[in-house]
Amino acid sequence: MKTFILALATLFALASFARAADDMPAFQPGNRILFQGDSITHGGRGTDPNHFMGHGYQYIIAAKYGTFYPERKLLFLNRGISGDTVAKLQARWKTDTLDLKPDLLSILIGINDMHQGVSAAQYEAGYDRLLTATVAALPKVRLVLGEPFGLPVARRKEGWEKERIELQARQVIVARLGLKYHAPVVHYQKAFDDACRRAPAEYWIWDGVHPTYSGHQIMADEWVHTVEAAWKPVEPVGR
Amino acid sequence: MKTFILALATLFALASFARAADDMPAFQPGNRILFQGDSITHGGRGTDPNHFMGHGYQYIIAAKYGTFYPERKLLFLNRGISGDTVAKLQARWKTDTLDLKPDLLSILIGINDMHQGVSAAQYEAGYDRLLTATVAALPKVRLVLGEPFGLPVARRKEGWEKERIELQARQVIVARLGLKYHAPVVHYQKAFDDACRRAPAEYWIWDGVHPTYSGHQIMADEWVHTVEAAWKPVEPVGR
Predict the structure, then answer these.
(1) pTM score, two decimals?
(2) ipTM
(3) Exposure class string for B98-128: b at 16+ Cβ within 10 A, else e
(4) Using beta carbons and an 8 Å cutoff, which residues of B are at the interface with A?
(5) What are the residue boundaries of the structural domains of chain B, listed by start?
(6) What is the pLDDT of residues B63-114, one digit of tens each?
(7) Which of B111, B215, B218, B226 has the most CB within a 10 Å radius?
(8) Cα dist. B146→A65, A74, B108, B174 in Å?
């Protein structure tokens, strides 16, 4: 009986330790968390304190952590604009990013560059310049890079093999930029590929580019999982 | 040691039983889940398979369960319209609700009736007629009623005592209709009152009526909690 009580006590202690631990050290008190990108991030956003986040992964993340950590007074912001490319981000970067002084900056860009014929090399060079300017202006910013993604749906089924290869080239570039700038990369493509084992591609991304509400939950979960792990303090061994 | 292993085994068995159980029996395979109401439900919704849900509690719920149960092929719908009252719902009820044949219908209505001077008695009579027509047309529909709510923010601070009493009258009415129509009632007011112990009112409801993204997460959590419990099968005792 004594052993049983001891076992129970240990389990409860472990459980409460897990709960007490800081689950999202990437969001510190007073932090501004900014989402940048194209239509996937834009999400039909409006202007009031609910609609300014847009519909999508960024809304789900903001709602979740806004409620989880009210005492941290986090401010979530969205400056995604439909149709944007790296060049278009570059043109509005000062006003829409640097001047906002985000503590954490999440970027998802690339699918429009690809569809508009910007080569992988041009994409990489432009994105690299954008990130250099960012860390120069905001040396302490926590960067999070999302890989461009897609699925073969509707008219995208045709020519998918070629598109997939093009996409993979951009995914490799984002992974490389992530290493260069010490930024965790959110592997959306893998998350969507995995989700396709549970339901058809169009259940997650209705036109091959824009996720459904369920697809945005897949993105939010992957983002949270990646960002949680990236800034988690390493636990001392043997305690 | 034997006792320890037994205790561990029991705990793991309990934990996996909890996970294996059906967490949301209110959502059965192929179900259509319809959200009806005013601006809080409308949420600036658009038309494509992501934006048609609007920003808000209904988006968070759809994304969560769309991802949790892809094999159930649930369809979430939103027909909330800004500024709506019971009378305005009545006028579009056939096209926007009955014809859609929802399996679960969630309604949140009342704040505009109150602000436009519809008396509590008129509100109750109109809402009652709406629900009678609903169960006549859709005898198997699972109804979920949300109580109207508010918080004293900005210009609503003045005269709040009177507004709070008026609101409580509507909350009592919705509770009564819930009993009459066997519909669980989502107690949003209590959820927001509780949330105000963690952050000021305007953190959750920016103008006293419309929730922020964090406020919508409070709503979603309360909705899920209420609806989960309402259709959960009673566990046999002693097993």
Answers:
(1) 0.90
(2) 0.88
(3) bebebbbbbbbbbbbbbeeebebeebbebbb
(4) 1, 3-4, 6-8, 11, 43-44, 46, 48-51, 53-56, 59-60, 62-64, 66-67, 70-71, 73, 76, 195, 198-199, 203, 206, 210-218, 220-221
(5) 28-230
(6) 999 999 999 999 999 999 999 999 999 999 999 999 999 999 999 999 999 9
(7) B215
(8) 24, 28, 5, 8
What is the Cα–Cα distance from B165 to B156, expressed in whole angstroms? 13
Other C-beta atoms lying within 10 Å of the C-beta of residue B217: 25
Asked if B63 and A3 come within 8 Å (Cβ–Cβ), the reply is no
Burial A174-204 (b: 16+ CB within 10 A, else e): beebbeebebbbbbbbebbeebbeebebbbb
Q: What letter represents residue A226's amino acid?
A: T
Six token digits for residue A106: 């999440």
pLDDT at A16: 44
Q: Which of B108, B119, B98, B117 is nearest to B174 (CA)?
A: B108
B197: which residues sit within 8 A by CB, 6+ positions away?
Answer: none
Please identify, in words, the CATH class of the domain defined by B28-230: alpha beta
